[in-house]
Hints:
Strand order of the largest sheet: 3-2-1-4-5-6-7-8
Oligomer: single chain
Shape: elongated
Radius of gyration: 26 Å
CATH class of the largest domain: Alpha Beta
Number of strands: 15
CATH superfamily of the largest domain: NAD(P)-binding Rossmann-like Domain
Amino acid sequence: MSSPADLRGAPVLVVGAGIMGAGIAQVAAQAGHAVKLFDTREGAAAEAKARLAATLEGLVAKGKLAAEAAAVTAARIQPVAALETAADVALVVEAVIERLDVKRTLFKQLEGIVGAGCILATNTSSISVTAIANGLAQPQRLVGMHFFNPVPLMKLVEVVSGLQTDAAVAEAIFELGRAWGKVPVHTKSTPGFIVNRIARPYYAETLALLLEQAAEPPVLDACLKAAGFRMGPCELMDLIGHDTNFAVTQSVYEANFFDKRFVPSLVQREMVEGGLLGRKSGRGFYRHGGEGSAAQALPVAVHEAPATAHEVTVHGEGPIADMLEALATRALAAQGWGPARDRESGWTGLRIDGARLVLTDGRTAQRLSEAMGVADVAVFDRPLIVPALPGTALAFAVAPQAGDGWRTQAAAWLAALGFAPLPLVDAPGLVVARTVAMLVNEAADAVLQGVCTPEGADAAMKLGVNYPAGPFEWLARWSPAGVIGVLEALDTHYRGERYRVSPWLRRRC
């Protein structure tokens, strides 16, 4: 095909009048395009336009859209009964069922209708763009244009290039995404693209902790929400639907030749087989709807004041150690003295007389106790928000060899520092540290393999799934050595391929 022209204002065909297709049609129409909307089900396109008109009227009623703009947008969308009526379009965006055979058939049909310069875009979220293009006369003009639901609100668009996608075609779609008010990111056509690939550990690490009974769903959700995530993984899986989430995990696992990093969870498979699909079925990790709905909030825990200490020393260097020093100074102010500081010890945390309260480096409290030669050891999770807000939920675990008194005192000291301590079984990496380390590691591998850039990964995860920061932003606040330490501790503990360190990270140490 010839070099693609500027697509701004060009006529567009959207194939598929479901939620995604209707949303794409709305965004295109609001950006000034004449949009033809087609669906194989008779009347579906007209019904979608009617729903869209009602949505726009609702925005007018709320004062979020001018009445004239709403009327013009709706007028730009024309339901069509046959693909042949759209022969003059410059862009086709497909949003039909996620089946390779259906998409291939559609695009082969479209090649016989549209002009040679028309760009063909697929909104697939999981199917290889290279595979969809196989068999086309001009595979170089097929590109992925993956929107996120709801399309009018979500800013991210993954611009997906298959092996034969012309770079100029991908760039034309990238610029069009900008013109539509979106934030486009380039990605190669690999399983999961950027978001669905990098996001897998957010679910997988929680499911692994549930499998070994380290904590209950409300505890795991509270820890990750305290780290800045809008929803905990258990809440989010209930919202998505366990059948959908499990299917995506299986798809990524199989597409990566059964790489152990992506292995699905026995916990989730059991829920799917039992029909516990989340909100759509009324029951998942939580109950949803009706009088029997279970409260998802954690019970308020009351902790006694810590026993009077004779010596408190803050160990370590960096923002977390500085925060601990400030919190310990405040906690000890009533006694008229403050903590000492040791910046050279090689670990971060507090020495409280003979006991140790240690920031996780990935090792369990048991292993830290053995390495330090101290029985009374507790390990606490990595705070992502520094300085921490008062009452921030924070996971901790106590070494099995610790005395009963220290089990109580570890929680008391964390509470005195201003945290809401949540006890876990002594699992390596606890909750936040292991989850974030795995998210960073997966993003590093994506960059290593040329799937995206670090900037693209950060933008995709913040805009596509509302993460509080991108994986490379977390890495900058942490350190490659710190992330690698957690991953190696997890690998030592579990002895498998899942926690292998990305070569991209190793090169930065």
